[in-house]
Amino acid sequence: MAQAQKVLAPEAHTPPVLADWEKVAYLLHVSRQMDEVEETRLVPEKQVLYQFSARGHDMAQILLGSRLTHRHDAICGYYRSRPVLLAIGVPLEEALAGPLAREGGYSGGRDIGVVFNYPNLNGPSALPMCGGVGAQYTPATGWAQAIEYRRTVLGEAEYEGAIAVVLGGEASVATNGFWSALTIATTQKLPVLFYIEDNGFGISVRSHLQTPGGNIAANLASFGGLTILDGDGTDPEEAARLTQEAVTFVREQRAPMLLRLRVPRLCGHSAQDTQGYKSESEIAEEKSRDPLPRLRDYLVPGHMAEEGWDEIEQRASLDVAAALERALARPQPDPKTLTRHVFSEAGEHGIQSVQTKGGLAAEGITLPKGSATVQPSGPRINMAAAIRRTLDHELSVNPRMVLFGEDVGPKGGVHSVSQGLQAKYGEARVFDTSLSEEGIIGRAVGMALAGLMPVPEIQFRKYADPAVEQLNDCGTLRWRTRNRFAAPIVVRMPGGFFKCGDPWHSQTNEVQFVHAIGWRVAVPSNAEDAVGLLRASLRGNDPVIFFEHRAMLDHGWARRPWPGDDYVLPFGKAKTVREGRDITVVTWGAMVERCEQAADMVAKESGRSVEVIDLRTLSPWDSEAVVASVRRTHRCLVVHEDNGTAGFGAEILAVVGRECFLDLDAPLERLTMPDIPSPHNPILLEAAVPSAEQIAAKIDDMVRF
Questions:
Q1: Which residues are catalytic?
Q2: Number of C-beta neighbours around residue 272 at 10 A
Q3: H or E element: which one contains 561?
Q4: pLDDT above 70 covers what percent of the chain?
Q5: pLDDT band at residue 273, thresholds of 50, 70 and 90?
């Protein structure tokens, strides 16, 4: 691993570099005009509801964007990144229509206007930005890793020289995402540029509270594998030289670099921020470093005449005014389309069915649809072996699939599900990661945006908590970009009790992901269903949470014969595992076996007939099958391992209550864990998790009602 270089002094660099200064001056005036018209007109008129000026940051960003010319370059910015977008070619009208929340634009009014995205098919793209500070870093490293994968593993020469660039302010360097991305980029030696715009303030919090001494470049001087540049982002010559050096280094060395540029924030954090926390002398000092007059002084009269500067300013003003009128003429978004693009859709009624960027579908790659017909062969195998064999087969037919997480490599996973796969497919396709769930999921999002099929593993359900921001952002990505981007990933997530329990490894809480927007959720109870649902996930076009219950991975009841290499089980299709006439029991995961045991007990003791439905997937869930069953049996009990309050059983019974109200002969009931974490002692665990005896007793009470 290359050792970090010391912070380079500006005078040690190569001679000054020439830039397209007319373009820089024009775009700087454009950016200023946009900020001004928003601040003085559109915000007071309440036509722009969220406004974040880039004044002070703008010139340096434009110099950066002008250097991004590779068609597979990508930037991942934040809410003050409009100037760099202008520099990579975002049309002026679109840059104004987004903040106006008009039809078209970045999101068609679905997201705040400063959260940009730009799926450029013929040049650098802007990956979907996030509203959370620091959330941009790990997806950018994922894009960089995908660049290297496509260049080296897939042999796609067109990716030679492409890089990822991630922008962030000095406050963002305190986030989990920043440090996770640094670890990924340096340990993997990825072509990513960390571009830090240090204005000294995170809203009102001064930079010395974000990082010791207020200088992240100095603090990272000995960070292994990271080269660092540090300089003045308001000095045209210095900023241009450092930017060129940084971009060239990352392209040629295929290695990460951090460039910190000091810039003033010549405005509040947002239009609502009065900057009362700054003294008059601080504001005056910032104004003295305004890059606009510094650029004029640098260019006039050496590079252009004063008349030339004035002409550029006038042209920018006219262009912004014309673009604004076009943006204002756009219609308001149509509320009838509001629920479109939560998930991938079939093309109908003129709807764009395939996203512009992200996943295999955007590049015209289709995998075999498979068959819903089971073709059993061989002996019964456990769920762990079934999942492993499915992953093995899909890796063999899809060269863009990658499998990764903590301990999935030589160890084969803490549950042995990925055992032997790294030896077979190599470290580029099956690899271990650092211990950062934020990094695991964020990296997967970036890789999916770049056209791969990432399969990250979260070692236990509870460990997903540090990645919740990335998971939520991934799920909403298609909707908030109006299907311009999507990130189909399959997150394998073991959880639930196993012999014993505890609050850290045995959590289920699958309802959290059902409630999250844009996620499909599978909870198989047996090996056959695990194969079909996992293959459907890996060949689909949506993000999926694939829940692997720890108790069922090697359970004898869950064993089934191999259902075939082509077996695909569609989401949203429940299975009636036991037919009955007296009551419907709805369940999933490890509770299916216990409900079947309870049904046997009830049949033996009283001759009552119990219908047991295994939902198999919770998003979507098969409400039609459940409603049809309850209309026959006139009773419904939902059994699940998760806590009762706000558990998914409440959603099921709400639908059943509405659709089957006149058919019911007994109150709707749930049997769940109490509202406590999973206890560790096996005796306490059995008292908490619904047992077959408890289920049978509840069935008996309901039938006798």
A1: 505
A2: 9
A3: strand 560-562
A4: 97
A5: confident
Phi and psi torsions of 25, nearest 5°: -65, -45
Could you count the other beta carbons within 10 Å of the beta carbon of residue 603?
16
Over the stretch 78-118, which tens digit does the pLDDT of each residue have? 989 999 999 999 999 999 999 999 998 889 999 998 899 99
Cα 386 to Cα 146: distance, rounded to the nearest angstrom: 28
Structure tokens at 67: 């250097």
Instruction: For 626-652, write each residue's pLDDT tens digit.
Output: 999 999 999 999 999 999 999 999 999
> Can you tell me which residue has the tokens 């470049």?
217
3 state DSSP class of 164: strand
What local confidence, expressed as pLDDT, does residue 92 receive? 97
Whole-prediction pTM value? 0.94
Separation of alpha carbons 273 and 199, rounded Å: 15
Distance CA(232)–CA(66), nearest Å, equals 18
Nearest in space to 586 (alpha carbons), one of 648, 499, 539:
648
SS3 168: strand
What 8-state DSSP symbol labels residue 275?
A: -
Q: Is residue 211 part of a domain?
A: yes
pLDDT digits (tens, 9 = 90+) for 15-35: 354 689 999 999 999 999 999
Q: In terms of domains, do 396 and 295 share one?
A: no
Residue 385 structure tokens = 């072996």
Check the CA dihedral 54-58-62-63 and report its sign.
Answer: negative
Average per-residue pLDDT for the chain: 94
The pLDDT value recorded for residue 4 is 43
Distances (CA, A) of 564 to 403, 528, 560, 589, 617: 22, 9, 11, 22, 20
In this structure, which amino acid lies at residue 131? Answer: G
pLDDT grade, residue 1 (50/70/90)? very low
In sequence order, which residues have a C-beta less than 8 Å from that of residue 93 and are 6 or more positions away? 323, 326, 327
The SS3 call for residue 549 is: strand
Q: Which two tokens stand for residue 277?
A: 């926390």
Burial 171-205 (b: 16+ CB within 10 A, else e): bbbbbbbbbbbbbbbbebbbbbbbbbbbbbbbeee
* Boundary of a domain, candidates 337, 369, 393: 337
Whether the Cβ atoms of residue 584 and residue 601 lie closer than 8 Å to each other: no
If one counts every other C-beta atom within 10 angstroms of the C-beta of residue 675, the result is 11
Domain shared by 130 and 244, yes or no: yes
pLDDT tens figures, 676-703: 999 999 999 999 999 999 999 999 999 9
Cβ contact 117:128 at 8 Å: yes
Supply 167's token pair.
């922008």
Q: In this structure, are residues 143 and 49 in contact, taking their beta carbons and an 8 Å threshold?
A: no
The count of domains in the chain is 3
Q: Determine the structural domain holding residue 160 and report its residue range.
A: 10-337
What local confidence, expressed as pLDDT, does residue 154 receive?
97
Over residues 339-344, the mean pLDDT reads 95
The answer as to whether 343 is a domain residue is no
Q: Which of residues 562, 583, 608 is at a domain's end?
A: 562
